């Protein structure tokens, strides 16, 4: 067999113990693998060095972000084909249970580390020869390193939020569209992205039973879409808090142009430092994923303390599937290094329990994971359609990060590896009057 690709395919199958599910196209132009499948393109030998020094998800991600690795063909199909190697449990995993994102990597790393097996030792040595001499390539500059401060302290959280959100408002406008809403839309058949985002904003307002004159706190307000909608359509006085300076600048401009500066305030402020409760309603949409397990009890207690008796909380949060106890705080390596530093996902049951421990009465949980898959596919399409401009506004590596994480996340929602839920909770007063209607989901009450 001539060329690097057939050798790579044979060696990979020997090491992995399973057929390679995509074609491999090597730096020398050779290609091998299943006919008609998308191709994993290794543009340089250093791509192979990245994979050998960090086998699994992070090595692939570094190669992708650096442009050493690419996909020729449908990105979703390629990610779907390699998901079994990256996210699903390796059949050789002797513990034999669970479906968390690290199980397949454990099996993959274990096989690559098992060099006492002479057969695997020979295959790994040949891969090292193919990779060529040299130290492991440095990680792309887009990767987060040198984290300072206590995990989920206000200062460290502010830096983590800035890494993700202060990429440039113009870049986000290309991806998100005119709504500038960076959370799961709420779809109806045949709808468009803007309509689905308006439907989501309105659903939140109705679940919170907003009425003129009420005070609304939006924790993690993003670019201000919810507070604008709530003030304009429901007549509330709203405060939005964010740790992103760029988001705040954009939101304040939108509020001023809408003539709502007397009713909507945007603060660059940690939710733990909001001084002016109580509020009649609180929304937390796509923010709690940044809170982390060590801080979630304090998060729930803080929101409870900021809400008046009888007030409602709408907590919209991505959730992961439950995992074995030893994997309870596992973090996705690519997401942690490139997308949401220090972000953590919890099962929805854990979220509900912690809200109840804080004193909330949980009244409704609506699972809408399919809606997020549809939303992400629209965002990916926006990014791909505006690719040259996205690269100019950020960097080639940053644009590649966003394309990979959004496409992979869409598949994760579609395959039920992760979900998203709207949890409606009430600070029910001592007399037990929740203020909710008797019939479920007649939100206005």
Automatic annotation (TrEMBL):
GO terms for molecular function: methyltransferase activity. CDD domains: AdoMet_MTases. The keyword Transferase applies. The keyword Ion transport does not apply. Residues 131-153 are annotated as: Disordered. SUPFAM superfamilies: S-adenosyl-L-methionine-dependent methyltransferases (SSF53335). Belongs to the CFA/CMAS family. This is Methyltransferase domain-containing protein.
